[in-house]
Amino acid sequence: MTESNVKTREQMDATYQWDLTPLFASDEEFESGYAKAENNLDKITAYKGRLGESPEVLSEAIDTLLELGREVSNLGVYAHLKNDQDQTNPTYQKMNAQTEQLYSKYSQVTSFFRPELLAIPAEQLEEMTANNDRLKELDQFINDIARNREHVLPPEQELLLASASEVFGGATRIFGYLNNADFQFPTVKDSEGNDVQLTHGLYGKLLESTDRRVRKDTFEGFYSVYQQFENTLAQTLTTEIKTHNYNAKVRGFESARAAALFTNNIPESVYDTLLDTVGSRLNLLHRYVDLRKSLLNIDDLEMYDMYTPLLGEPPIAFTYEEAKEITLNALQPLGEEYLEIIRNAFDEQWIDVYENKGKRSGAYSSGTYDSKPYILMNWQDSLNSLYTLVHELGHSAHSYLTHANQPYEYGSYSIFLAEIASTTNENLLTNYLLRTYADKDIQRYVLNHFLDGLKGTVFRQTQFAEFEHFIHEQDANGQPLTAEFLSENYQKLNAKYYGPSVNSESEIKNEWSRIPHFYMNYYVFQYATGFAAATAFADRIAGGDKEALNSYLGFLKSGKSQYAIDTMKTAGLDMTKRDYIEQTLDVFEQRLAEFEALLD
Ligand SMILES: [Zn+2]
């Protein structure tokens, strides 16, 4: 669709738009809610300096804190959803800016809470909790804060660190400005011979070109900029790594990784197990690369040949109404309780389906404890949109079950778990499509979609995680992270992952210099663990194992009532052990074999 024939929101059928009235019946109701929340913010100040006074005072203070957070997030989510449905609407732009101010006031007035709670001696806090019923319910909430105690420094040192936070953020900001604003990428000729200016967005698109000359020019042109600035980029990355290592050290952690994983209470063995297990089965990725080489009929396979589609245009497409039907069929293994939620999502207008003028692009699931878990989409009649729909419904059903089964204080879930629910649904859709469509073209396409997804998420993100950990350790050991050192080691790692069939001595050795995630302090591994957990869950549930299904639903209902790693353990998935990753790689192997067989 071109911009000119995209309709305004008012011209569209309202039954395919989300209904936000259960959150706030009108903008007027939002305004009065806003005034009330702004007034209420002061309530928390009455508890400043008094948290250790008595169990009653502490429980009242926590309830006040939670209540304020709840009000602020209801307002914030309403404003951001309204703003996203049409970003050209000045009323909602203003509303959105207003709630950002409210968030910021909320963080200011509540900033005393955490350090003050941590200052209460452990024994005293335990005794207070033991003698108050409400505090007993809040035990996990309190413990999750209190376990930080041994890594908190005396107040004057905390103040020094806090006031240097802008300095610590310097490397990320410099990299961001270089990468997003200052870099001038060259132009390349597209397949029709037109000059196009390379951008980050276009880079990915052009690497999917079926014209190898376009892919080569794009890859070499894009990387030429990073190579020109490789010494500067080595310094921004080094500075970021040093910041992680420094902060971990001053807070008494053994390593940056220990500090980063401590945030969500994830054992480091989860990380090591991921690297070991994936590392021991890289022959599967090599086999996939070989297959790509023979399908593309290329003797000297390059990294820029990794993204061009193997099979051309998708052989099937669906309307939204058809997609609803398929979704309900595909998610059947999750049982009636789950399907009822999906039906409600369709019938109660949780989903903003189609594109309209000014609407935010892409897709997401968003809501609050008190709202429906809404979904924004920009539906196109395609297989991709169907995958997006079941993905976002996975997030929304997860939110719904969490809200319905947990009190407010535990009514959310951690990032570590979020993508498991959505990716499990994608896996169930893959199973369903493979079962339902006998057509060879469709079978091939769906298998390829799965294999590419797993390659990009499990193999590639594990490669990043391995490199990220390696450079943190090298810096901690005093090794200077020069551009030469980084490139040499990146090249080795790339050769290890992709195998001998592809050239790792090309510009790819500079890939370390352009990945924003290396500035995110041990974040990427969660993409790989999440995808692997989801594939293992889907495999168990699809096999009709009733117990596996109940455990899975238990996970979706558990919110933050336990630490993420314990939630998974309760659901039958021990993420400190290899099994779930092995099971996932078994599925990859099996589908790779099916794919190979279909190509013969
Ligand atoms: Zn997601």
3D structure, described in words:
By secondary structure, this protein is mainly alpha-helical. It has 26 helices and 7 strands. The chain has helices at 27-40, 55-85, 90-110, 113-119, 122-130, 133-137, 139-146, 155-163, 165-168, 170-182, 200-207, 212-228, 230-250, 256-262, 268-279, 283-296, 320-330, 336-347, 383-405, 415-436, 440-476, 483-498, 525-542, 546-557, 564-570, 579-599; strands spanning 187-189, 195-197, 301-302, 351-352, 364-366, 374-376, 502-503. The two termini are 38 Å apart. The structure holds zinc ion. Zinc ion is lined by residues 391, 395, 419, 422. Zinc ion binds next to helix 19 and helix 20. Residues 206-585 form the Peptidase M3A/M3B catalytic domain. InterPro entries: OligopepF_N_dom, OligoPept_F_C, Pept_M3A_M3B, Pept_M3A_M3B_dom, Peptidase_M3B. Has oligopeptidase activity and degrades a variety of small bioactive peptides. Keywords: Hydrolase, Metal-binding, Metalloprotease, Protease, Zinc.
